[in-house]
Amino acid sequence: MFGWLRRSWRTAYERLLERELTGAPTHVAVIQDGNRRYAAEHGTEASDGHRAGADTTESVLRWCGELGVEELTLYAFSTENFQRPPDERETLFDLISDKLRSFADHEEVHARGVRIRTIGETERLPPRVREAIEYAERRTADHDELYLNVALAYGGRAELLGVAREIAADAAAGELDPEAVDVDEIERRLTTRPTQAVDLIIRTGGDERTSNFLPWHANGNEAAVYFCTPYWPEFSRIDFLRAIRTYQSRQESWRQTRARRATALLRAVGDSELEEARRIVSRLREHAPEPIEDDTDESTEQSAD
User: Fold this and answer.
1) What average pLDDT does this structure show over 118-145?
2) Domain spans of the chain?
3) Is position 35 annotated as part of the catalytic site?
């Protein structure tokens, strides 16, 4: 009885959340945290937690397609993950390889026009993972409805540091004018190139930090961030809708702030122009052969109406 009521409530709440949404972010990035803690709480091996998390990844990809998200980036394996125990690393490499090939062959992936790409220092990965990457990218190369970026051996600070070193070396060699370094020059040198700037970062597992994830493409774009407590294998469609609602609220706040600033600017400009008009009328009065009426106040009142 209680199980049925709980499921009914969740279904009704999910529908309510979806009706409240007026649009989806273009690019969502996800830090999939909590696989190992999920496995520990369920008394299973870490590998079981990673496999359960992989199932959630498939669901999120489907939800993105349903809601109109155009790009999804998943933090699958960071540069820090190389420090994990060898057995766990090898299990992760096997799982990543299997999932990349499975996604590349999945009927729904092709039906939704999903294009799979990888970002990161993939040359550091074992041959079997690199082969799976090449296979997935080749199999989905003709699609462009939804981009799935899989971050593997990725670290945002390392990437930015590499760009800084390249620019410094080119400047020292006289091949680049330091004054010419701008946003476009940096982006041209980045190895990570999403098709869109990141609008929303989601992190599961309870930690409230972005962990060196897409610092240029997300933080530079002032992306909205949604932290939630469920471990990645427990992440539900309701959690996803809540995250999008957070993004939507942030966008609405930005619109209101911009509207207030624009109104204040117009008022400031209006006051300035009014004073200038009065000064001009005053000068003309001094030199005009006939009296000139000052109608600046009346003009202002009419424009305000």
Assistant:
1) 96
2) 24-235, 271-304
3) no
